[in-house]
Structures are given as C-alpha cells and as structure tokens.
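May I ask for a sample protein chain and its fold as tokens?
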Amino acid sequence: MTTSSGKSLIERILTARVYDAAIETPLDKAKNLSSRLNNNIFLKREDLQPVFSFKIRGAFNRMFQLTEPERARGVVAASAGNHAQGVALSGKQLGIRTTIVMPKTTPDIKVNAVKSFGGNAVLHGNNFDEAYAYARQLEREEGMTFAHPFDDLDVIAGQGTIAMEVLRQHQDPIDAIFITVGGGGLLAGVGSYIKYLYPNTKIIAVEHEEAPTFHDAFKAGKRVQLAQVGTFADGAAVKLIGEQTFDIASKIVDETILVNTDETCAAIKDVFEDTRTLLEPAGALGLAGLKKYVEHYGLQGKNLVTITSGANINFDRLRHVAERAELGEGREILLAVTIPEQPGSFRQFCHAIGNRSISEFNYRYANQREAQVFAGVKISGGKAEREILLNELRAQHYSFVDMSDNEVAKIHLRYMVGGHAQGIENEVLYRFMFPERPGALLHFLTSMGGNWNISLFHYRNHGSDYGRVLVGIQVPPNERAEFQKFLENLGYEYWEETQNPAYQRFLG
C-alpha cells in the first residue's frame, strides 16, 4: 500500500520511531502449550512493554511525528485504556500535554496508569465510541491535536514494528500468526509487513464474539457499524473498525475467528501456566483463536505465533477468569441433576461420578420426593470424557441437564441455589473445613452414612489448601448426642451456624 504522501506502509514501518519509549520484546516458545497442542506455539510478549501493551509503539510514533505547532496545542486521544497509557507516557517523554477520554467502564488499573504518567484522564461515555465522540469534540473546541488509537498510518506503522522483530527472532517459516482485532491497527501493521515478506504465512484475525467488528466487515466486504459490543475484552471492544485499517487488513487477512468468554479465560490461564503472567482478556484473544484454529483443522507440527498484546487486568476480575477458564478448556462440566430426596443419595451420586473430583455441589431441600443438585465435575479428557461421564449417568438412570454451555447457569444460577425450605424440620447448620484432596468430600458423606438427611449443601473448590462446606442436616433432638459423636469422629474442623443471622434470614 502506498499512502497519499507517496510513502509505502512498509517504508513507514521500517522508519518508525518507537524505541525511545518501547522495548524489543521477546518471542517466547510456550513449552507447555506446544506440547499439549503438538505444535510450536510462540508468544510475542507485548505484555512486557513499559505500559504492559503494544499500544506504546503506535502512540509514540504518532506523537513523535507531530509538528511543533501540533505539539504546542496539546494532544487529545480516546481509548479504552492501553492507547491512553501509550499517549500519556509518550507525552511525558516528549513534553507534550495530553488529555485522554476513556469510557466510564475502563478498569481502574488503566485509568490510574494514565494519571501516573501525567495524562489528564477524562471519563466519559459507556463505551469507546462515546468516548471517541467526546474526544473529537474537545479537539474542535480546544484546538487540540487528535491522536487516533488505530486509524492513523503512523500508529499502524508503529504497531507494525512488532512484525519486524518477530521475523528477526524466528527465521524459520511461520505457518500462521494470530492477531487480536479491536480497531485494526495491530492487524493492519503486523499483517502487512509479514504478508509483504512471506505471502504464504496465514494472517488470522481474532475477535471476541461479542465484538465482531472486523469479522462482520470482512464478510460483508465493507465496514459494518455494530449496534452494540460486549465489554469483557474491553481493549478490543470497538463498534466500527477504522477506515484505513479495514482497507489495509481486508487485503491481507486470510481468515477470521470469533472466540467466546470461556475460551478467552482458558487462554489467560494457558499463558499464566507457561509464563506466570496474567493477560487482560483482549491480550489473550489471539491465543484463544490459535487454539480454536488448531482444534478445528487438526494441525500438528506447525509454527504458530500470536501476540500477547496486553496485561492490564484488574485484580478483581481474576475471580471471573478463574471460574470460566476450566469450562473454556473443557476441564469442568456443570450438571443439574435430579436425585432422590433420601439419606445416602448424595453419597450414591458421588460414587456414580467415579474417581473424578467434584468441584462444586449446591443443593437446597425443596420437597420430600426429589432433590435438585447443581454440580461441577472436573474432567481431564475434554469432550470425549464429557460424553463418557454423561453416558455413565444415563446408564445409572440419573435425570440431568448439561449446563456447561448455559450462560445463565454459569453467571447466575450457580450462586443462587438455595433459599428458604418449606416444611423442613429439625434442621441444623454446620460449616466444615477439610483438606482439599481427592476423596475428601466422599469421605465426609461416607462417614455420615444414611443416618440423617442432608437438606442443604454448598461446596465449591477454589483451589485452596482447605475445602469449605456448608451443610444443613435434619437431626431430631433425641439424636443430637449421636450426631455430636459423628462430628468428633469425622476428624474435620467444624462450626455450628444454626443461630447465624445470615442463615436465619435467608435459608432457615
């Protein structure tokens, strides 16, 4: 592609000014993931940049190219967070006043980073597009210079320097590179340079299914304005891909892939296990797409590259990522199971699960006939083992529904199983703590035997050393001494919570 100034994009990439602020990041082989997928998986570690994102490259190159009058007017930008940090840090190094408009939904870690670099962070709107419109308004009203986060040739060229490094660091042929798409600057820059030198390398664009900005445009052959976008991968949540980025990317992209939240969370976990680094969701989209592509085409022995494009994740989001990663990797199955409402039925169900670990068990007494249990079961063999388990339960005549792909169940239902039990008698509530090891839960149920009916049960494996269980048990007054003996012989720490006001108000 030749720009209006007569300078090709490749020339712009070759002459881009980025290393005053950015670093050359390593291209690391993901050893664990490569072994598991039977391919050579390489991670271009842009999460190691000073702002923990590749965005510093394009931002600095854009601001370095400004004329003195443009610098004097100050720079305004719109960003969901990572471009914002790049602009703020570049402004600090170049002595340029910066104002960055960010959506109100931007994680605090990104807002605080902008402020720490001396940028004026302005929170406006609920998404990137609303922030963008306000930034352009400030540009007009205050005469500032606008630094576009992606639809600018200097920004695209800055991002393209990643490709220069990749090809220096991996001199053998690369079969495919998987690139996250938000506004398209990374895709256009990196894809153009690699395709120019190695036309046989496949350029694969990856997006979250709730923000298929490029996917829909690529399919339609023109830019498509999305009505709305999800914000889980906030760094890539853009309603309309850039005009220049689409024009460039549409000529060099071979395929597009959409990934979901569970697949993205699983990719975050994969990178953590290989590097001990926590990516933000947008930063892991490329790897999620790579894994999906490998499974779909059954690839083996290929050299595959993806860019870990950002690591600005809020700590409080880790809980959600951890919950969904196991499902995304196919290592956990969620089941709604009907079992008889009678003593011993929990223990029998645990035996039906076999040697698999139970990751979650939620239940509340409803009637005297049947019990509805929400259970999570760990599996290691992916879809094949999932089918084996379901067939085993069918053979034992259990009635169940597989909830593993049910968004309501994954987000809400698992936390809502419970409530008041009508007509229940002699219920006592106990909290137990026991070593988190295989068989510990079954030991608890086996020790209790069939003497008393369990009327409430909540357990969730959180990966800690000790498991925590909340149990409601129907124990008639004349059997309390025998029950106390059972507790002492069990060998687990326990606390009675029958008089706990939380239980009295919401469960009793």
Q: What stands out?
A: The radius of gyration is 27 Å.
